Automatic annotation (TrEMBL):
GO terms for biological process: carbohydrate metabolic process. This is Glycogen debranching protein. It comes from Streptomyces diastatochromogenes. Residues 17-186 form the Putative glycogen debranching enzyme N-terminal domain.
Amino acid sequence: MPPTHTALICVALPGLAISGEQGQLTGRGLEGFYRGGRRLLSRCQIRIAGREPLAVQARMTGADQARFVGTLRVSPGAGPDPDVVVERTRNADGTERITLHNAGPRPLRLPLEVSLGTDLADLGAVASGRAGPELPASVHDSGLRWSSAGGASVTAHPPPADALASAGLLRWELELPPGGTAGVELRVRPDGAGPLRAVGQAATSPFAPAQAAGDDPRLAALLRAAVDDLQALLLRDPAHPSDTYLAAGAPWRCGMAPAEALAAARMALPLGTRLAAGTLRTLARSQQPGPGPQAGLIPGPLRDAGALLPPACTGTEATLLFPVLLAEARRWGLPEQETQELLPAAERCLTWLRTTVGDGTHLPDPQPGGPVRCETQAHAHRAALLGADLLDAYGRPGGSELRQWAQAARNAFRTGFWVEDRGGGRPAAALAPDGRPLPHLGSAAVHLLDTGLLGAGRLAPGLLDKVQTEQLARLLGGPAMDAGWGLRGLGTKEAGHNPFGHRTGAVRVHETALAVAGLAAAGYDKEASGLLRGLLAAAEHFGHRLPEMFAGEQRSAGRAPLPHPAACRPAATAAASAVLVLTTLAGIRPDAPARTVTLRPVRSAPLGEIGLTGLRVAGAPFAVRVSRLGLAMVEEAANGLQLGV
């Protein structure tokens, strides 16, 4: 798999443009323009007066655009200073602008050559090294065309003076007066397709124009990058174009991943409920029909769980997240009609839960002989309590049975899953098929702190008791789990720890954000603040555009976090995590049906004063400010929305 950590990945789905730091598209690795998972152009190299520009800067200017700057010395006797500046602006929509600027005192006549090529390969073939050779080109309109495998073309404006299909070459003679500029625009398109209409660039966005400000200037950049990334990852259900949802991440997972789509939509609720509604409607249409034991299940692929556990079923996670997202979206202001339309799908998820649990107190792994996972019990318990709350709100049966099971699950978990040791104990990662606890400590335990929002600003009870919660907070804030940049996937003292392991030691941004939110909600400000500061420091090194994960090496003076070469960036859950951690600082807990909002800010104010504007609660703009003393004040809210206590 080609590495992604040094790539500049421009995203406006279904379009991608992936570049190296030199700016030239060489056809190596992942480089190229993509649409719908197919590489339309793999090579785009420029030469000016027979030479390649010297690359001096490459940077992202937005989620969908990168800018590359190079220089040349073309005038004899010009000395050490370059006299030509070359700028390339590359967009995920398939356009590239090449601009030459004459910085010298004399007019210049410069030949510009652009060498193009493609293999029209699928992204999967590119990733596995099976892309194949470049295809032959033909001259087409004002550019070149490749006619195999569906076909693609590059057109240029202004048209080139020469086009040589056998070499894949376009050529111009550009006149540049002193201080003047000249440029060429290239447009990459699939055959029969027009300009890319990215979902995230539609006239109406599902995201409110949220902004952050305060004593720490990194907050504004973090939220701005997060919203840009979420916008870039939007997809639309082709059969129901009003329903949008988030792709899991670029470049590897540019399609629907149910568990990640639901988790990201849940964390993004402060930006509005439209994304949640579109995601829920899209996944409701994928539910397994009944009758049968799988009725109500939302299908999902297996996810690697590291060397210590077999792969986990993301379909189980998605099915349990569905009623939770619906219940919480209603609290944030999802209209009653939309909630009621989605209620039957949520009921089917809850029926699947009760059917699968049967007379037991734990939700088993769907694979025969699989383990009983800690995080699955947390998801199931939360779904039961928030689902019961939702059923009661609409006079539907089943709420009391779900609460009774949740109570039994709490009692069983607090004894069966808690492993006593000389350090104070820990929750087991899972129970083996024979009932033996697997005691390794990993970030999956943070899901025990994510209990969910009920009415009147109350959080649902968790599976752990008060003493166990305090011990878990101590463990998560300790050096074995806290890398100084965020939360490791597996503690450093555990067998199989690997700082680059997807689930065995890398810092996963989503679970770090859940830890920050859960610890803060439980009153453990010190541990929450430590993880929050670490994550903010890591984000700064990543240009405030957080990847889904990075290496869990210990932070030390003068070092930067190590990128993971296979991480998606942008990633939906990482971007939405920024929204979660910032709104956690203000402790916003809305109850739109009751027309109240409760504020439970982090009292220690770890980042000083912070202001959040442009959020949405109860369908209206919402703004809040938290002082350096940890006191929160609502600055804008919907008419009639009362401050809860």
